[in-house]
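PROTEIN DATA CARD
Card holder: Saccharopine dehydrogenase NADP binding domain-containing protein
Chain length: 405
Origin: Nannochloropsis salina CCMP1776
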Amino acid sequence: MASRKYDLVVFGATGFTGRLVVEYYLRTYGPPSPSFQWAIAGRNQDKLRKVIQELETHKGVPESKYLETLIGSSEDSVFLDALTKQTKVVVTTVGPYGKYGSKLVAACAANGTHYADLTGEVPWIAKMIASHENTAQASGARILHCCGFDSEPSDLGAHVLYNAMQKRGLTPTEIKFVLGSSQGGVSGGTVHSLADAMMSPVEEMTNPYILLPDKKKGSMTVKQTRGVWWDQDVRRWNAPFIMAGINTRVVARSSHLMDRVPFTYLETHSFPKGLWGCLQACMLTVAVGVAMVSMAIPPIRWIVLKVIPPGSGPSENARKKGYALIYLVGKGLNKEGKEEVVKGSVRISGDPGYQETAKMLAETGMALAKDKLSVQGGFHTPASALGDTLVARLKRRNLIIEVEE
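Structure generated from the sequence above:
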């Protein structure tokens, strides 16, 4: 890979999140240079030029004019083959991935090119693993899915907490991810990806172990959450977390790949103590159920997709006001067989689904391009491939995943 022209290419640079990734790279690492050669790619030259012009004139990033552009479609296998032969890493925001991502994954796996995306389409990930795992292992390509708010805080949070318990001499028995206070927007691309995933067979959508080799329970047991209940560990009302159906699958795969001891894992969305908090938890539970059922009904899904087009998303002002605080709770047995509790947190300053998701994907790409990694090729998770390396990168950029002393 040392002879490749680019360290990294951002594919899908004209989309809402793609533009954020490009802006992040420019502001954080600067334009292409001998120490970091990178480019942007998409199917429309005019739209790519418009992105560069907007960054230069409206965002105050004049260095954008030095970006190289690569033109081609996610459906063009010849273009994708050429693209993946000249870069070490591709980070892609082109979704829904089930529609537009399969050929790029195949090209990366075949050409030994590392890959990171933002998909939350778990059944599609399972298909990619089944189709290209052996090829990626042979070529050395490290393929990473779910490298944004779904599912890096969950995956890296579980990784940090699990390791902390082991360092303290505990045998982990339970890890809990509890979303506390948060604020963020939703983009059209996310809605379209969710709608695409909802068309998968029910057994694929509901199997928490679908990303494991035999699609059966491994070392980690996913605890299903239903209804509303009081959580004494965080002293908050808990409700189901809409992203748990993605995150738990990724953490389960990490546990398998990293050969962890058996433990239970669950994710919840929490609200403050008191009657109002309980009421909020109840309302969210109902809202999530209605939303999931509605998106499964073709006429309603069609209307939603028409009303919320791809490429739309929260304003810059709204993104800056966004945030998320996640509570991590781990339980383990000490040498005397007594249970001890270890707590941690994930603190996100900025819209978790867009501003900070762009940061997570960008830093994942940088880790794949620049850091020395011990894992071989194959379909990994953020935790199994990058682990502490990525945690440290994100901490330097004010996204903190840590355990209480």
